[in-house]
Amino acid sequence: MTANSPRLEWPGRxxxxxxxxxxxxxxxxxxxxxxxxxPDRVTLWWDYDEVRxxxxxxxxxxxxxxxxxxxxxxxxxxxxxxxxxxxxxxxxRTGFHNPAGRSLRLKLTxxxxxxxxxxxxxxxxxxIPAMAEALAGRVPVSWEEQLxxxxxxxxxxxxxxxxxxxxxxxxxxxxxxxxxxxxxxxYRFRYVMKKDRTINAFAxxxxxxxxxxxxxxxxxxxxxxxxxxxxxxxxxLKRHATKALFRDLSLQVLIAALTGxxxxxxxxxxxxxxxxxxxFSRQAETEADLEGLRMLNxxxxxxxxxxxxxxxxxxxxxxxxxxxxxxxxRSEDRxxxxxxxxxxMEVTQVPLLxxxxxxxxKLRCAPGGTAREDSPGTDTQ
Length: 381
Known about the structure:
Layout: E1 9-15, E2 23-29, E3 33-37, E4 43-47, E5 51-55, E6 63-67, E7 73-77, H1 81-89, H2 102-136, H3 141-155, H4 165-179, E8 190-194, E9 201-204, E10 208-212, H5 213-218, H6 222-237, H7 240-246, H8 251-259, H9 262-270, H10 282-298, H11 304-315, H12 332-343, H13 358-365
Parallel strand pairs: 8-10
Antiparallel strand pairs: 1-2, 1-7, 2-3, 3-4, 5-6, 6-7, 9-10
Helix pairs in contact: 2-7, 4-6, 6-10, 6-11, 8-9, 10-12, 11-12
C-alpha cells in the first residue's frame, strides 16, 4: 500500500442482532463488500447492496452500518475515515456518506446563514411590493368593492354618518364632475360623510371615499374640497390601498384575491378595519397628488384649490395626528411642488357648484366645525 493508497483494514465492533454484547472485529474493505473477521476466526461477508448506513453523517458521530431486519446485525466504527476509504475503494457505492463533503457543506451552511437575511430583506423591500403591485392590478373590482364596503362598515358606524341630502349631493356633484374627465375603470364611487371633529379623509378599495365633517368645515370653497376628493379618488383608481394591504398578507391570500376566491376574501375582511391605519408610500402619495391635479385640470376645476386647502392646514395649530396632513407627507416641498405643477396647467375653468352657498353647506354638513382664518371666498387660483 502506497502513502496515498486508502486504508483497507479497520477495527470495529460487531453486534449479531440477537444479543446486546459487542464483539471486536477487523473489517476489510473490498470493491463489492466488507469482510468481517470475528475473534472466533469466523469470517462474515457483507455485500454493499445489503448494507445501509444509519449513523456517521455528522462530525464526531460513530459510523454505524446495519444489515438485515427486523433485528439487524450492526457494525460500529469510531473513525469516520472508514467511510472515506469505502468511497475511495468502491466509488460507485453512493449509498454511504462521504466525509470529504463536510467542509463543502459547512461552507454552504455558512454562506446560507449570511445570504438568507439578505434575501429576506430583498424579498421584503422589493419582492413582496412587486408581487403586491402585480396582483393588485389583476384583482376583480367586485372583490375590492366587498373589501371596501366591509372596511367602511367597520370604520364608520351608522350613527356617525351624515345622511343630509345637501351634504350627499355636494360630494356626489363634485365626484361626478371629476369622473367625467377620466376613464371609470369599472369603479362606482360612493361617498360617505362622517361626523368627526378631526380634519381627515381617506379612500377604501372599490370606490369608497370617506370625508370627515370637520374637513368640510375647514374647506374654503368647493374647489378646495374637490382637491381633497381628487387626491383620494386617485388612491382608489391606482389601487394604492389594495396594494398596501396586500403587502401585509400571505401569498395564499394574494393568490385567492387574484382568482376571486371567497375564502381568501374572508381572511382579508377580517383585517379590513386596518385600512384606517394604512399609510401610503411617498411614491403613492406623490402619484395621487400629480394625478389628482391632472384630474382637476381635465374636469376644468381650478387646480389651485388643492394647494389652498393644504396651505390652510399648515397655518393651523392643531395636534399632530388630528389633521389631514398627518396621514400624508407633511412637507413644504410637497406644497411647493403642487404649486409649481398647478401654475403650469392651462385650463378654461368652469365654476364648481355655482348655485350652492358654501357657507350654507358648511353649516349643514359641518356644524361646529373649525373656522377658517381666511375668508370664505378664498381665491383658489
